[in-house]
Amino acid sequence: MTSTPEFIQVRTEGRVGIVTLYRPKQLNALNDQLIDELGAALKAFDADEAIGCMIVTGSEKAFAAGADIGAMASYSFADVYQGDYITRNWETIRQIRKPVIAAVSGFALGGGCELAMMCDFIIAADNAKFGQPEIKLAVIPGAGGTQRLPRAVGKSKAMDMVLTGRMMDAQEAERAGLVSRVVPLDKLQDEALGAALTICNYSLPSVLAAKESVNRAFEGGLSDGVMFERRLFHALFATADQKEGMAAFVEKRKPEFRHC
Ligand code: HXC
């Protein structure tokens, strides 16, 4: 990154890159600068050979309470459309090829919920609350919420969330399939780091292929997805790590992956 970010904190733990959203007074409300900084940090980790997986997290009280309402309040249609304000650069996160885990505690509302859903999976603390309350502001989700939420939880619950603007707690989110695990608040960061370190120990080409193939399930039809998966599966037999992984199993030893 070119300059020191203002609204995020960036650090590494082994091969894991961690980005913490940091606008504490505004409950991590997401403005264009924060999204730009987040995208730049994730892209830098994606390009860094020393990194195998990333975590995006917030504070105990808020992962992110949505897009910055104060910043949006006076925009006209011409402002947001011509300047691509608010929605600018969110898609950067989707371009990241290494896995990105969302570690969510507290509020994940509006754009905060959408940001969490853009990550590859969500680990939630037991105090997490998810919601798409944009309807209360006379708008609708603008960063994929009406598209990713139904895919995650089905049409009925997504309609309920988007039309009533109510919040869903961590237990409901887990039952609905929005989050992969719920853990006590004080265990959240360790749990996310443990998952990330597990992923980092696998062969990177297979990790990238696995992420790409699961994402296909969301964006295309079943036959195409199955064919795409098969091609990637076959392609992984060209890696040295596939030879190592299978030889290690046969020889009853731990594999040593070289990520190639
Ligand atoms: C700007 C926000 C904010 C937001 C909270 N704050 N959410 N500022 N944008 N989205 C600020 C408050 O104004 C307040 O500032 C401080 O953070 C603490 O918030 P409180 O409301 O005092 O806290 P609390 O009573 O605990 O309530 C928490 C809350 C509530 C339930 C999360 O803040 C809330 O409802 N926030 C708005 C949630 C929302 O509608 N999100 C969707 C936004 S639209 P001060 O200065 O008073 O201390 C959206 C569109 C996405 O996200 C489009 C993506 C492209």
UniProtKB/TrEMBL annotation:
Could possibly oxidize fatty acids using specific components. Belongs to the enoyl-CoA hydratase/isomerase family. Its EC number is 4.2.1.17. This is enoyl-CoA hydratase. The lineage of its organism: Bacteria, Pseudomonadati, Pseudomonadota, Betaproteobacteria, Burkholderiales. It comes from Malikia spinosa. Keywords: Fatty acid metabolism, Lipid metabolism, Lyase. PANTHER family: ENOYL-COA HYDRATASE, MITOCHONDRIAL, ENOYL-COA HYDRATASE-RELATED. It comes from the Bacteria. It catalyses: a 4-saturated-(3S)-3-hydroxyacyl-CoA = a (3E)-enoyl-CoA + H2O; a (3S)-3-hydroxyacyl-CoA = a (2E)-enoyl-CoA + H2O.
